[in-house]
Amino acid sequence: MLDVIRLILLAAHILGLAAIVGTFFVQMRAKSGFSTGIVLGGAITQVVTGVALVGVHQASGHEVDNVKIAVKLVIAILAHVASRRGGRVRPAFHTAGGLAIVNVLVAVLWQ
Ligand code: HEM
Fold it and tell me: CB of 13 closer than 6 A to ligand 1?
């Protein structure tokens, strides 16, 4: 049962990732007028599903790398702040997109 919940959360986690990075790629060349609603939704999804994944992992007795999780959490929160505060200006929009990509690298390369 916990495994099913974990896989559903993981699917939501991947969709949240797509919402942030996909929206970023589409608007990467724009100079202004960024639409940030989907990025924000994705950033919130990542934090919520990420924390829930940690809970499910611990509940089923799996090891969780706390340092890796802490790094991902800080990066996800920074990306969220960037897209909230000034997501409509270019540097903040690129910071949010770039940080999400850094989190993909942390997730996949830090094993
Ligand atoms: C923009 C933010 C984020 C992105 C782009 C992201 C990306 C990913 C990706 C690509 C995976 C699959 C690769 C793997 O299993 O190692 C993953 C898994 C995972 N992520 Fe994230 N993540 C983000 C934020 C977070 C946060 C904030 C947390 C926790 C507080 C978190 C916790 C986890 C956990 C526990 C897994 C393992 C899932 C499993 O194998 O069951 N993630 N993440």
Answer: yes
Contact 70, 30 (CB under 8 A): no
pLDDT digits (tens, 9 = 90+) for 34-62: 888 898 999 999 999 999 999 999 999 98
Residue 53 alpha carbon to ligand 1 centre in Å: 8
- Indicate whether residue 17 lines ligand 1 (CB < 6 A): yes
pTM: 0.92
Query: Backbone dihedral region of 4: left (phi > 0), alpha (psi from -120 to 50 degrees) or beta?
Result: alpha
First vs last C-alpha separation in the chain: 25
Q: Indicate whether 86 pLDDT > 80.
A: no
- Ligand 1 centre from 83 Cα, in Å? 19
